[in-house]
Amino acid sequence: MTPQTTYEKQLTFTTPDHTSRIASDIAQRLVPGDVILLEGPIGTGKTHFCRSLIQALMTVPEDVPSPTFTLVQVYDVPAGELWHADLYRLGHADEVEELGLLAAFEDAICLVEWPDRLEELAPAHALTVTLSLVADAEESRTAELRWSDPKWAEKLDTL
Questions:
Q1: Which end of the chain is more exposed for a tag (fewer CB within 10 A), N or C?
Q2: What is the tens place of the pLDDT at every residue in 26-58?
Q3: Closest by alpha carbon to 96, among 107, 106, 85, 81?
Q4: Is 97 helix (H, G, I), strand (E, B) or coil?
C-alpha cells in the first residue's frame, strides 16, 4: 500500500472576528461526510472556530454551547446534520462508537475538538486544523490545515 500524500496550508487569524470569517467561509463549502478535526491547547480558539462555523450554517441563529460536558451537540442545518463533538472528557476511544460518531463521520458534517482521543478511529478523509497562539499578539492565532483527501484542496483553495 502506498502512503497517502499530506497537503498543508498555513493561515493566520489576526482577531476573533477574522477567525469567524474564515470559519464561515469554510462552512459554505461543507457537505455531509466532511470531518474537521480541531487540535490545539486550551484557549487557542477551537470552540470559537466551531461556534462560528455552525452559526454560519444556521438559517435561524441560536446559541451554540460548547459540548464539553455533553460530548456531542447535533444541529440540523440546510445541508443535513452537523455534529460538534468535544472529546476532552472522553475516557477511552471505544466510547466513540457509543456516541454514534463513527456513523456521523459518513453521514453528517462533523467538527471534533480533541481528536487525539479518537486514536486510530480518526477518519483518514478528515481535514485537521491545528490552532496555536501567536507570541506577542494576544488575539492572533495560527492555523495549520492538513489533509490527504484531494477534496480539501478544492474546498480550501481560495482561503
A1: N
A2: 999 999 999 999 999 999 999 999 999 999 999
A3: 85
A4: helix
